[in-house]
Design goal:
The complex is a heterodimer of chains A (866) and B (636). With 866 residues, chain A is an alpha/beta fold. Chain A has five domains: 91 residues, Ubiquitin-like (UB roll) (Roll), CATH 3.10.20.740; 133 residues, Alpha-Beta Plaits, CATH 3.30.70; 250 residues, Rossmann fold (3-Layer(aba) Sandwich), CATH 3.40.50; 155 residues, Dimethylsulfoxide Reductase, domain 2, CATH 3.40.228.10; 101 residues, Barwin-like endoglucanases (Beta Barrel). Chain A has a seven-stranded mixed β-sheet, covered by helices on one side. In chain A, strands 35-37-36-39-34-38 form a six-stranded mixed β-sheet. A five-stranded mixed β-sheet of chain A has the order 2-1-5-3-4, sandwiched between helices. With 636 residues, chain B is α/β, with parallel strands linked by helices. Chain B is built from 24 helices and 22 strands. In chain B, helix 3 packs parallel to helix 4 and helix 18 packs antiparallel against helix 19. The longest helix of chain B is centred in the last third of the chain and has 18 residues. Chain B is globular and about 85 Å long. The chains are: A alpha/beta (866), B alpha/beta (636). The interface between A and B is medium-sized, with 36 and 33 residues.
Chain lengths: 866, 636
């Protein structure tokens, strides 16, 4: 700690912090303009100047001057006030002062500063600059005449988002914010809007819809990916108008512009009951009665195992928890699963095999009744935990890693906050980034090593890295205590590095260098995405990475962990609360009872016409036809189910097959919690009216009650309290928090993995079905989501050379054929894709990418013009 | 061949010596940018053609700038065993005549600037005389090099080889003691000893701020980290300054050797020279020099067979003045926008790519090898007080002898201007001298006896700067001068910090108003207030010094400002809106010359009738004033 005085007050501050940090921490106000807590200070506006002794005779910027022992700082004096006043005049001299029509009016930092510093006159004249306003760009509007040249937007775009889409042009007095003289062609995350202290960057979706002081602000977790960001939802007259994050300013495009999904005209408004080949609107009572009656009828006739449930990574923990309770306690079966089975659950299973299931001890109930959505459990001094959840990394720790290996993840589209964490890590020059992917992704540009492998060859590549490491250092001992190493080594010995290089397409030298980097690392992180988990061999892929982590990982070092991407808002939560046949809440393996079939097994039963095949399906949202591979097969099988209930906000293709459709609340129409990819709790408070639809938890509770189950709850708070009581690992959990820290005991068992990487079929192209930057699941594909103005439909990404050979130009329609089906889709030339690899986003209903797939997100296809 | 021993270096030195001082007649043409712009390339070509045509058996060489830019193109001829003569103002005709004379075995007697009796071999502290100081053929009145006031008080350290060697021949540099200091440093001295020498020498940064060089090196050496960098700041951007260009064009190895010694002392293995792209010849010579030094193993891996390795890369800057500021320069090398950032951290802690970095100016680097070769004591014996050694100025403006001069610090402004500069051109009155370029201030006649050193100039509100020295006479309007410099800094402001971005333009606008007759009471105070704000609060040195020209001109020439504002007069008769041209009736004889030359027909009159200026039409271009042969046009 450093001792100093600020305005005569003796203060202790952390070494290395700035005078501004120290002053703010002690409630001393220093005006700022170019400073933002989420960015590194640049000391440009000079408004925060203070007098520092000992120091130079001129005042110093508080934001960029570091505290020192014995320093005497004066933050306010007639001299400083005069300086700030004059500086403000200079800032204001060319400001548009169109506050009455400026969106920032009422929450503008410049307005506030002008007021606080008492600038009443600007007694200077200046040549007016030409106002090159940008009304053309999508979603973001630019008013250079309001710009105060603080550079906050430029810095967030460059340093945090990593898009480098905007910069200053010209210089001196004529410095102007610009995007290369062209309309914006960026990630459209809009972080520049929230970081702007004035109205130089405007959210077009919000423009002219309300004044800042008229809105109600509700802080909520963002429901558009598993990142667990929180934002402020602005509402007025019960309508959602805008989403902001004034804390770090960072949100992605879907987060910021996806909320209008709430007001989509496509939304279902009342329950629908199938009748005469169509649907008719029904009252809630009628629909719920019919569902309960039909369920009862089926269980009475065929047993309670005849109903199968599919939970949802979109729905809250509370809804999913009730959903599994409906089956486990109500029906007494384990006939349920969630669609993460095809991606994230494969990874969890692999990690569990290597690191074991969670074991927790030393947890007790808190003395006082906990706050809503706070765990009623707390850790004692002896609290210990083990098992795979302990090797799952936290995004805030990732920047502390010294090497990150990214495999099978196009980071930003998969999980934007993961990209921000990597950008933060990259600010340290001791951090090394290794990106391995089958195509060029955003982070390849910043990677120290870039490995381009052939589609589907991830696990062979990892085997090559392990082999290379063990060849270079035969005495290498795993950094994590683990059994089965000798046997594992024997297996790895069979791997031939030359062969790996040939089959994966990654040069041997790069494999060796990656291995060397990982071996030297003191805190390596391994990041992998749904591209790798979504293959039929996703489990094997994860085993390879988990084994690699046993070899080089250092779970004790902050940041050194595995980071599987949980893609949707509650992909991890739906698993944690037990919506899987083989796990009870808290990943407790089911013992003493037979788990029901997994989702793919259930489909197999239907296909076989097995007597164990379900008679009724209860789907908690999620358009299975759009999400699951081999759409034609899934469609055929779902049609075989006599009774299907779907809870969804939209009439999806899957919902169209149902007998009863129950419309649900989305976004801030409901209360509840999500678990983010890194295990922290996100809180969704209710901020919008439901307009006739109902939240998932309420519907489940009502169906359950009608069936005579004890499932009556007053609110999600009550459900959370019950749920969290049974989750010892959630001890200490609270909103925006991942719970208490346990003394970790990470050990593992090497599990050999398969290295056969053949992809069936002989068609010339490999299709990858993956994520698009502007979309998350299917919600963002509904009008009037802002995201649609950027990416309005599915396009087939194709290497330009391939396109030329096929005679295809940008926008031409291509016929894509696989062994499973055929679709027609416009192409977009994508130089980032290697020749032979094509890409389709998974989000859109038409054309349906999954019509082509078989059992994986990779499939061989033929492409023709037309 | 890689030089790994003193013997090998000695051998190259002997080779170089034979090259530099051949037995034949040697003709050297000053081919730096200043020479070329005066026509030296044509002179050189003429000589080359004549050699072929006449079958002349002489050695023709290019050399750098000897400093006397006013008299370019300069050609030096060494008549072996007789004399070395310097010829000034050469043109192709005179050159042809020179060639003819050489063919006939005569000493060419036209256009002689001076004879050079001996040359100093600075690195060795010896003098190499040319035989027979005054051959009989030569008229007695031909002055020697040291007789010329321009050269008399100069002490050349940075410029030790400029004009004496071919800068594209490393052997000639070695012949005059080059790379001996590097050998001495890396084979016989510890890095600490090198730093101690530099510290003891009292050398201060010649980029302008005057930070003690040895101390800067010590900070960098002591900064933790394996990778360190040295940088040569060759982003010379002051209007009227060309010292760095002269050194880089005329003696690039002097900089390379200094950098290598510095790198050894600080533990750096890579260096960058950041040179503005507007200096193509300097860059070309640097590139040649680097590749020659690498070929001899004087740069690269294992220098002199030790484990010291050092490589130098050149980065071309796009000519932004602010990139001369350390942190902006680093940003520019890294490929980012050349904008300064707040310090600390200083580059010595976290510089290029976050590594400890030392940035020194071209002149500073060029002083290092002599300090090592001759010792700190020798260097410290030059100069005065806290300002040791010599520095290079580009002496320009209204002086008779403009050019590149190197003087010991402590010389007075009067000596600089009236001895070296030969006084004010046209015998007009001296008014002020601007030191430090746009960051410096204007010093009036009353302070002419001020010694030129860091502290004395700072006390007057100016700065030493990197070496620009612009002399002004009675016909310069000081308000206009301030405006000129402000226009430069305003244009070069990067725009990052508020006071510099906005404030410099405000100053500029007020100055414009004053020079256009729109000045108001209180404008001077406004200028002072704004200047203080900019000085106090700007992020980097550019802004912090930008108001100096305004403040010093107000301080020393306030009456001129007041005359502009109150009397609406420009005393120097420069600011057009404030002057009127009239015909002086009793001097005009009606010759019509002015009437015919006036571009806007603003002069009324007829043959032998006294003319009259029509003020409404007059654009104050001054054509009539210049045209009149009878001084019949008056300016008020």
């Amino acid at each position: 700690m450093v001792n100093l005085t600020i305005d005569g007050r003796a203060i202790q501050a952390k070494k290395g912090c700035t005078i501004l940090d120290a002053a703010r921490e002690h409630g001393i106000y220093i005006p700022t303009l170019c400073y933002h807590q989420a960015l590194k200070p640049i000391g440009a506006c000079r408004i925060c100047v203070v007098e520092v002794k000992p120091g130079p005779p001129r005042p110093l910027p508080a934001c960029a001057t570091y505290v020192a022992e014995g320093q005497e700082v004066v933050t306010s004096s007639p001299k400083l006030d005069a300086i700030r006043l004059e500086l403000m005049k200079l800032v204001l001299i060319n400001h548009a002062l169109d506050c009455p029509i400026c969106d920032k009016g009422g929450e503008c930092e410049l307005q506030d500063l002008t007021h606080a510093l008492g600038v009443s006159v600007v007694d200077l004249e200046a040549v007016k600059l030409p106002p090159h306003k940008d009304y053309v760009s999508e979603l973001i509007e630019r008013h250079p005449d309001r710009c105060v040249t603080c550079g906050r937007c430029v810095r967030i775009c460059r340093d945090r988002v990593g898009a480098l889409a905007i910069n200053f042009t010209l210089r001196g007095y004529f410095t102007e914010l610009a995007s290369g003289g062209l309309p914006l062609d960026c990630e459209f995350c809009g972080s520049c809007i929230d970081i702007c202290p004035v109205g130089a960057l405007i959210n077009k979706v919000f423009k002219y819809r309300a004044r800042a002081w008229e809105v109600t602000r509700t802080e909520m977790v963002c429901p558009f990916c598993g990142g667990g960001c929180s934002y402020e939802l602005w509402t007025k007259n019960d309508r959602p108008l805008r989403v902001v994050n004034y804390d770090t300013a960072l949100l992605c495009g879907r987060g910021r512009f996806g909320f209008p999904v709430v007001e989509s005209p496509d939304r279902l408004k009342t329950p629908l009951i199938r009748e005469n080949g169509g649907f008719r609107e029904a009252s809630w009572d009628e629909a719920l009665d019919q569902v309960a009656a039909k369920f009862k009828e089926i269980t009475e006739a065929a047993g309670s195992a005849a109903i199968y449930g599919v939970g949802s990574p979109r729905a809250t923990n509370e809804a999913n928890y009730l959903f599994q309770k409906f089956f486990r306690t109500g029906l007494g079966t384990h006939q349920l699963d969630n669609p993460g089975r095809y991606t994230y659950v494969q990874a969890l299973k692999g990690l569990a095999a290597v690191f074991g299931f969670p074991q927790v001890s030393g947890v007790e109930k808190v003395a006082k009744p906990p706050l809503p959505f706070h765990s009623p459990l707390t850790t004692t001094e002896e609290a210990k935990a083990s098992g795979f959840p302990l090797v799952l990394g936290k995004l805030k720790d990732l920047p502390k890693a010294d090497v990150a290996l990214v495999v099978g993840a196009d980071v930003t589209p998969e999980l934007p906050p993961l990209g921000w964490a990597l950008n933060t890590a990259l600010e340290r020059d001791t951090f090394h980034l290794v990106v391995a992917n089958n195509r060029k992704t955003k982070f390849d540009r910043r990677a120290h090593l870039s490995l381009r492998y052939k589609p589907g060859s991830e696990r062979l590549l990892i085997a090559g890295i392990i082999k290379s490491l063990l060849t270079a250092q035969p005495e290498w001992a795993p950094t994590v205590i683990a059994g089965g190493f000798d046997e594992f080594k024997e297996n790895i010995n069979k791997v031939n590095l030359k062969d790996v290089a040939k089959k994966t397409g990654v040069p041997e030298a790069l494999i060796k260098e990656t291995a060397a980097r990982l071996a030297q690392a003191q805190a390596p992180a391994i990041i992998f995405g749904s591209e790798l988990m979504g293959q039929d061999k996703g489990l094997e892929n994860t085993l390879a990475l988990a084994d690699l982590f046993l070899l080089v990982g250092r779970p004790g070092a902050p940041g050194s962990a595995l980071y599987p991407v949980a893609e949707k808002n509650n992909t991890r939560g739906v698993c944690e609360v037990g919506v899987m046949p083989e796990f009870l809440p808290g990943f407790v393996p089911l013992e003493g009872a037979e788990p029901g079939p997994t989702l793919p097994e259930m489909l197999d039963l239907l296909e076989k016409g097995d007597p164990k095949a379900p008679q009724a399906l209860y789907l908690l949202g999620g358009d299975l036809l759009r999400q699951l591979p081999n759409r034609s097969r899934v469609e055929k099988l779902l049609k075989k189910v006599p009774f299907m209930v779907v809870q969804d906000a939209f009439l999806t293709d899957t919902a169209k097959l149902a007998q009863v459709i129950l419309p649900v609340a989305v976004h801030a129409e409901q209360e509840g919690t999500f678990i983010s990819t890194d295990g922290s709790l996100g809180l969704l408070p209710r901020a919008l009216p439901v307009n006739g639809v109902r939240p998932d938890w309420q519907i489940i509770s009502q169906i359950g009650s009608k069936m005579g189950f004890a499932m009556s709850y007053a609110s999600p708070k009550q459900i959370f309290a019950e749920l969290a009581l049974g989750m010892p690992r959630w001890a200490g959990m609270a909103p925006k928090n991942g719970g208490a820290a346990f003394t970790a005991e990470v050990t593992g068992q090497f599990v050999p993995f398969e290295t056969d990487i053949s992809l069936p079929g002989r068609r010339p192209f490999t299709l990858l079905v993956g994520k698009s930057l502007q979309h998350s699941g299917s919600f963002t594909t509904h009008e009037p989501c802002g995201t649609l103005t950027i990416t309005n439909r599915a396009r087939l990404g194709l290497n330009p050379a391939d396109a030329q050979n096929l005679g295809l130009a940008e926008g031409d329609f291509a016929k894509v054929t696989s062994s499973q089906g055929e679709i027609s889709v416009p192409v977009t030339l994508t130089p980032e894709l290697p020749e032979g690899l094509v890409f389709l986003p998974e989000h859109f209903s038409q054309p349906a990418a999954q019509r082509l797939t078989l059992n994986s997100n990779l499939v061989r296809v033929t492409i023709q013009k037309g | 061949m890689k030089i790994t021993s003193l013997d090998q270096l000695q051998k190259i030195k002997e080779q170089g010596f034979r090259r530099t001082y051949p037995d034949k007649i040697k003709v050297m043409v000053g081919m730096a940018t200043c020479g070329i712009s005066a026509g030296a390339d044509k002179v050189y070509q003429t000589l080359a053609d004549k050699m072929a045509e006449l079958g002349l058996d002489i050695v023709l060489e290019k050399t750098g700038c000897i400093g006397f830019c006013q008299r370019e193109p300069l050609v030096d001829v060494v008549y072996p065993g007789k004399v070395r003569l310097s010829y000034q103002g050469m043109n192709p005709e005179k050159t042809a005549a020179l060639a003819e004379a050489l063919k006939e075995g005569r000493i060419f007697l036209d256009n002689i600037l001076c004879r050079i009796d001996e040359e100093e071999l600075l690195m060795e502290g010896t003098v190499r005389p040319y035989a027979n100081p005054h051959p009989v053929e030569l008229p007695a009145e031909i002055p020697t090099y040291d007789d010329l006031s321009f050269f008399k008080k100069q002490v050349k350290i940075s410029l030790r080889n400029c004009g004496f060697i071919n800068p594209e021949r490393i052997e000639e540099y070695i012949a005059r003691g080059g790379y001996g200091a590097l050998y001495q440093a890396v084979t016989q001295m510890t890095p600490e000893e090198v730093i101690a020498q530099v510290k003891d020498s009292g050398l201060r940064g010649r980029g302008g701020a005057g930070f003690p060089t040895g101390l800067k090196w010590e900070f960098c050496r002591n900064a933790p980290g394996d990778i360190k960098y040295v940088i040569c700041n060759a982003d010379e951007g002051d209007p009227g300054a060309f010292m760095d260009r002269g050194i880089l064009e005329g003696d690039p190895h002097a900089v390379l050797e200094g950098m290598a010694i510095g790198a050894y002392a600080m533990g750096a293995s890579a260096g960058y020279i950041y040179c503005r792209a507007e200096y193509p010849l300097a860059i070309e010579h640097l590139k040649t020099a680097i590749s020659q030094a690498e070929a001899y193993g004087l740069l690269g891996e294992g220098i002199f067979g030790t484990d010291f390795s050092f490589k130098i890369k050149i980065r071309e800057g796009a000519g932004a003045f602010v990139c001369g500021e350390e942190t902006a320069l680093i940003a520019s090398i890294e490929g980012r926008v050349g904008e300064p950032r707040p310090r600390p951290p200083f580059p010595a802690q976290s510089g290029l790519w976050g590594k400890p970095t030392t940035i020194n100016n071209v002149k500073t680097w060029s002083h290092i090898a002599p300090i090592i070769a001759r010792g700190a004591e020798w260097y410290a014996s030059l100069g005065s007080g806290q300002s040791k050694g010599t520095t290079v100025f580009s002496l320009v403006g209204k002086v008779n002898n403009s050019g590149l001069v190197e003087v010991p610090l402590g010389i007075t402004l009067r000596e600089m201007i009236f001895d070296l500069g030969g006084g004010i051109a046209g015998d007009r009155a001296f008014k002020a001298v601007q030191t430090g370029g746009p960051s410096g201030g204007c010093i009036p006649a009353e302070f002419l006896d001020t010694p030129v050193d860091y502290d004395s100039l700072a006390a007057l509100g100016s700065i030493m700067g990197s070496g620009g020295m612009i002399v002004m006479d009675e016909r310069d309007c000081m308000v206009n001068v301030a405006k000129y410099f402000l226009d430069f800094t305003r244009d070069e402001s990067c725009g990052k910090c508020t006071p510099c971005r906005e404030g410099t333009l405000r100053l500029m606008e007020i100055l414009e108003a004053i020079t256009e007759g729109r000045g108001q009471q209180g404008d001077i105070e406004k200028l002072e207030k704004m200047s203080e704000l900019i000085k106090k609060t700007s992020l980097c040195g550019l802004g912090a010094t930008a108001p100096n020209p305004v403040l010093t001109t107000i301080k020393y020439f306030r009456d001129e400002y007041e005359a502009h504002i109150q009397a609406q007069k420009c005393p120097a008769k420069v600011c057009k809106p404030l002057i009127t041209f009239t015909v002086i009736d009793d001097k005009c004889n009606g010759c019509q010359l002015c009437r015919l030359k006036c571009p806007v027909e603003a002069i009324d009159g007829a043959k032998k009738v006294v003319h009259k200026v029509i003020q409404e039409k007059c654009i104050k271009c001054g054509t009539c004033f210049d045209a009149c042969k009878f001084a019949a046009i008056g300016v008020e």
